[in-house]
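Help wanted!
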Amino acid sequence: MKQLNLIAILATFALTACGGGGGGGDSSAADNEQTTTQPAPVETVPEEVVEQPVEVTPEPAPVIEEDNDEPYVAGDFADISVSEDFDFAMQGDWQVSVQANLASAERVFLNLCTEQDSYGGVDYASCVWQGPLATDVTELTVTLPGHATQLNAELWLLGSGDSQRIQLTEMLSDSGSISFSF
Amino acid sequence: MNIKYAMLAAAIATPQLAYSAAFSSCPTQAFLVQQGTAHLYGVNLATGFYESLSSDMGTTGKLNAMAYNFHDDYLYAWSYEFNTLARIGNDYQVEPLTLDWGSMSHSSFYVGDISLSDNAHYLYRKGATHGLYRVPLDEGASDYLQVERLIDGDSLSLNIFDLAFHPDNGMLYSVDRNGVLWQVDPQSLSYQNLGNVGVSGTFGAVYFDLNGTLYISRNSDGLVFRIDVAAASPQAEQFAQGPSSSNNDGARCAMAPIADDSANIDFGDAPASYGSLLDDNGARHQLVDGAVRLGQDVDGEADAWQYPNSDDNRGLSDDEDGIAFVTGIQAGLDFVVQAQVSGAGYLNGWVDFNRNGVFDDNEQVVTDNWLTEGNHSLLIAAPADAAEGDSWARFRVSSVTGSGASGGAPDGEVEDYEVYISQSSVSISCYPNCQDYATVAFEDNWPAAGDYDLNDLVINLQTRVMSDDNQVERIELRGEVKAVGASFHNGLAIRLPGMSAAQIDEQAIRYEINGEQLSASPIESASSELVVVISEDVREYINPLGECNFYRTQSDCAGVGQLNFKVFLPVSAALPEQQLPAAPYHPFIFATEHQREPVFAQSPGRDLEIHTKNTAPSDMASEQFWGMYQDVSQPQSGNYYQDAQGLPWAIILPYNWRHPLERVNILSAYPGFYLYSNSEGEQAADWYLLENANPEFLYQD
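Answered by r_m:
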């Protein structure tokens, strides 16, 4: 994928640690994720549902390159010729910048993942970085496989017994850098 | 009447002589008969899964005191409609038998089993006018079907609802409604109270297995418990969840194991202490088409592939895809887990917070949470006293409630996960990601050209970096040897360029091979850089007896052995993330003292290293090999380990790669490699994906 595209999926919902659940009213792809109540083994958190307004970044419709469905055709092995400097590296380092307002939650947790699941949410099996954010601007370097076409940034805002999730997706380009602004 | 007509008349008058056939062999499954009109079920006692075998057994009444006869492979049961013992063959139809009671009167029976030693059905009913009866079943014996009362039901007064013969000692066993385990000697007619097993209720079906383990099924809830009757103080352990019924009787061939070799059960794969194997009453679920499961995939095994032998590490069969730890587990704080469910069912989950190697009762974090199809986010509280370090979590989903951390369930799935519990805000950076493995593939003929099947040594590799406030705390190297498609012996190591051994707390290193923690340090002390030697010779673990030299590169050489590694390197001094080399660092192989002919008349040993293209060797390598054979390296220009075509002897693929079969050139297996190479990565960047392969040229387990 050579063209930079930005797909913004902002899905917010809440979950509670006790009692009835319920999600936000978002109808985006990530809305298939369901909020579930769960008894907390240690502490009881008041039943509360926090709903956030749904924001949709006014980006142009994504342009997705057509996959090349034609099977690759091999030539003669003897005809392969590669320069001495080409190192067959099938992954690359990416500079990732994440901007988020940390004051809006007690804790903010970020997941960077290369794939989405069938519900449009983050496929956590593809995460390359997971951790808390300590500052409003975070600069990271991640190594991504050559076959990755997108990077999903998922932000979790955790409070006392509730949480919200926001997801942004960027298609990978040749630039080697990506910026997410929540 | 002549003889011909007499025979015809006899045949018409006694239709039961048209006997159904016996069962073909001693079956693994148990039989359970329920309901007022007998309905026969087959039960897998390992999971509690049951399926209907027949709802029309040729009787309008119920059956009880059912038993499997090991001597003739028929079932026998007391028929309430015919008020006699009936035989049941493989068509599940009752054939009433005419018993000779002599002068005795009798009523119906709901307790009975068949002896494995004397081919007789023992029927029991409490009360002075009843007792324990013996019904010989040997058709060739003179006492066939002649009933004998052995003892009256006052002298042997037990509140039991079924009994079973031990496969070895010939004793009868049962558990009464108060939970007392009874042993009855059918010869001396003495009986013994073996103690209370800790559960009570009506146990309408009791069975033995080949090992002499007793299984008892409780009518009220269908729970199956197992009891080691030879223990000093036998205790009931919940084993599976079967069908409940007010009218319940069971039978099975006691000479059969509790589970057969068919891979129709999904087992957990956490380490032994958590319980994964069937012998350990590990968590397990019957595979049922269309049943609820976690994620998209579920696979079955004959028994658990227990850590570190989990089949999930090998990528292609990784069915642990339903649970994701969305945020890290930090002591005293909430964390988020996502459960993806296919179908709908009850979720239960445990995290070993205190890291004592078991899932304690108070470590259950999800209890019978009904989840429908889709993704569900669960907010879970980690206790403040959670112990820092590596631990395990287990999640189970089933259509039934009450799944414990161990034991069988009639459907659903169990997934086990390694987790890390922190005391601080730890981030984790993974290559190629936090779940999958990359592949490093070597041609080991260097500096001579090989057959370019890129399978002489193939490893899976995953690296993780754990940091706190941008300071690296720990580097993790995990992986496994996938294939060894050559006869050479090779060592396997990973160099972390720019780092030194002094930056690692060597005393705190965790170095595991095949799940066993080794005391030796994996750090190569003679190297000026940080070099972690996974193995001095992978053949010490893979195919050590040399049964075949193409381990997992030829279909007939699955080989023996395993090399699964895990190295955790705690950082001893401040190390900003920015100073860490890029993952996956520099994996390489090196020669051993074993022969390396015909490339070398005498093995160069540790002097010879093989790296990816344009990766400099460690300072342990000799420079004498540059330019030999097909190598055209020019170290002074930074060009290493390449031939005249610019091709490497090793590649790293950020993907759990399916390697080619033995002597299959890479282009045959992956045609896109041609375009990728000649375009120098500008095209066909996904050449290594399975969908771009010719699968017939790939090794498959």
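OP: Thanks! One thing I noticed: The first strand of chain A starts at residue 6 and ends at 9.
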